[in-house]
Amino acid sequence: MSALTQEKVIIAFNKLGKLLTNPTDILGNAFYTAESTNAWFTAENIKKSILSFAEMLNEADLAIWFKSVKLSTAPKKVGLILAGNIPLVGLHDVLSVLATGNIALIKLSSADDKLIKAVIAELFKIEPAFEDKIEYVERLKDFDAVIATGSNNSSRYFDYYFSKVPNIIRKNRNSVAVLDGSESFEDIQNLGNDIFDYFGLGCRNVSKIYFPKGYDIANFYEGIESFQPIINHFKYNNNYDYNKSIYLVNAAKHFDNGFLLLKEDERLTSPLAVLFYEEYEQLQALEEKLKNQSENIQCVISKSPLSLNTFGFGQSQHPKLWDYADNVNTIEFLNGLN
């Protein structure tokens, strides 16, 4: 088997991206098995995630990304503890390890143990040399470094257990949206994708929104009306009903359009089917506030002139290869292992 070169890796990733534009044809049984075993993994959401990776692995972006990638001459074993909150959420970490020529020891999430295997199997068909670079494990051992994604609770365990090796430990993060009142109906409609894609389960999903003082909430609700069918999903509906009943019993002030609850709250992390909000008077003061909370924020969605790294409305779930989780450069970390 011929040795992997960076050129071969780039070609293989690009071919994979093209294959993923037809997800149901390529992934076949894994697509439908994932849908039947995890109620959150609807066919629409699985397809959305796969197409996001297809979009990511385009020739131009791969060329840009690989300028920062060094192919290891002494491969390290990198343990990957993957999350399963949304379909294929751990695939970027796997591709990053492969891009740097290292070996991925993959601990899959039980919530997403079909799709990543199916995608990697397609990559093996494109470039068989990758088969020596992947190992699926039930328990990590004999590793040189670790990238682990989990909750705030599990991250404390990870910090302790993996403290003696180079590591990236990811915790809970949320995304926020900042409106200034000049948004069009289309802007708000696109923001609906940042809120509702994957039922709001991802760290790139908006869980908190900042309105300018005196903003008419009706404008927001009108803009997201097309997402009303989400309430037909039984697990989402259960969360909506539960949180609504809590607010009613406690006489907590909130807004309700029949599928999304809006509650004024300073916290960033809202329950499922709830969006927390705050009003602000000065954009500059809000900007400072967000900077101070940057360790808990994944994305800021806005068209306001902020000095923060922002995404346009509807773009939070369409990251580029270099939009790293928790703003920690995975490639830089992997390059540094050598």
From TrEMBL:
One Pfam family in the UniProt entry: LuxC
A molecular function GO annotation: acyl-CoA dehydrogenase activity
GO biological process, one term: bioluminescence
Regions annotated as coiled coil: 276-303
Keywords: Coiled coil, NADP
Name of this chain's protein: Acyl-CoA reductase
Domain of life: Bacteria
